[in-house]
Write a structure and sequence with these properties.
The structure holds 2 protein chains of 2 kinds.
Chain A (H helix, E strand, L loop, with lengths): L1 H32 L4 H10 L3 H13 L3 H12 L1 H13 L4 H9 L3 H7 L10 H29 L9 H17 L4 H17 L5 H14 L1 H10 L1
Chain B lengths: L2 H26 L7 H22 L12 H17 L2 H19 L1
Classes of the chains: A mainly alpha, B mainly alpha.
Chain lengths: 232, 108
């Protein structure tokens, strides 16, 4: 039965494999360039296991950020996961125990995009099907990040500027969201409030006021955000 | 660098990440409907947060001294351009990072 589940799950995960191995390698190389060897990359990919958060964590670790600011950053960046959980409530409801715990731990952006769209084929237990999708995805991410950490030690060229990969990742996600949505109000709120906060509070202190401002404005304008989204 | 503090950071980030994934199952694992405000914010928040993160990444640029943020501006433009052109995440990231590395190492 397990073999059937793997056979059904694996082909679906191939596109994620390509993305995770490469992005994971980028993360591992970046982390290594800040002085954290491959085992740090491996540890973080096992425990945190959240792509964009791990890129931000490179920054937090190398700057020795406070635990409180790290917690707030994680909360605001990963708050979107709340909504992945909400939409998987029904599918995951019958699943119990450790398997369910792992499914919840493994609910990354990419894994969510697979489990929310793919349906288990006839004769394959949904629990095993979702489990293998989640596990395979994490294996790709883990492998990529450890390979990146190892490569980072032996890379023969100057890696100055490689941290732009993190900026690029967020620019890409932002651009992709901009292109696929008709309503740009929330994107503009995010950029505008952050810029204002940066000017007012400076680079070391702007993040928390920016988060508060974004949450406030989104709440105030939620009607308009919803209406236009419905039209789009 | 303080290893213990780094480990504590990893632990905190892990705990909060897990919390964001677990909370819906704890709160609404029964039959209760999530409140509308939560659902509305859920649709709008990701775009705003990504905008904030772009600014976060660029926060340390000094616009008052050479090269006035030019490498960042060029690389971000390359990234957006590549992405609109091919819509390939990996190409956009690899291409713009390569351009940025070239700019800071060889040009500016």
């Amino acid at each position: 039965m397990n073999r059937n589940a793997i056979r059904a799950a694996f082909p679906l995960t191939v596109p994620v494999m390509a993305g995770y191995v490469v992005l994971g390698m980028g993360f591992g190389i970046l982390l290594e360039s800040k002085g954290f060897g491959f085992w740090w990359a491996g540890l973080m990919s096992l425990t945190i296991y959240a792509g964009s958060m791990q890129y931000v964590a490179v920054d937090l670790l190398s700057a020795g950020a406070s635990l409180l600011s790290a917690a707030l950053m994680t909360l605001i960046l990963n708050a979107r996961h709340l909504f992945y959980g909400l939409s998987m409530l029904e599918e995951y409801r019958p699943i119990r125990g450790l398997r369910k715990a792992y499914l919840i731990h493994g609910l990354t952006d990419e894994t969510y995009s697979l489990v929310c769209s793919a349906k288990p084929p006839e004769g394959v237990s949904p629990a095993a099907f979702y489990f293998w999708i989640s596990l395979l995805d994490q294996c790709y991410w883990l492998a990529g990040s450890v390979i990146g950490g190892l490569l980072g030690q032996v890379i023969p060229f100057d890696t100055t500027g490689i941290d732009f990969a993190m900026t690029a990742l967020f620019v890409v996600i932002f651009t992709e969201q901009w292109l696929t949505r008709k309503n740009h109000l929330s994107a503009l709120i995010g950029v505008g409030v952050s810029l204002l906060s940066l000017l007012a509070f400076g680079p070391d202190r702007f993040l928390i006021p920016a988060m508060a401002g974004i949450a406030l404005l989104l709440t105030v304008f939620r009607k308009r955000l919803g209406e236009e989204e419905a039209k789009a | 660098m303080n290893t213990l503090h780094s480990l504590a950071l990893v632990a905190v980030i892990t705990a909060v990440t897990l919390l964001t994934r677990l909370l819906p199952f704890l709160l609404f694992g029964g039959k209760r409907e999530p409140p509308r405000l939560i659902l509305e914010l859920g649709r709008a928040l990701p775009c705003a947060v990504m905008g904030m993160l772009v600014i976060y990444c660029l926060r340390s640029i000094d616009l008052t001294a050479a090269p006035f943020g030019a490498p960042e501006a060029i690389a971000v433009a390359v990234c957006v351009g590549l992405h609109i052109w091919r819509r390939s995440t990996l190409l956009s990231i690899a291409g713009s990072t390569a351009v940025y590395m070239l700019l800071v190492q060889a040009v500016f």
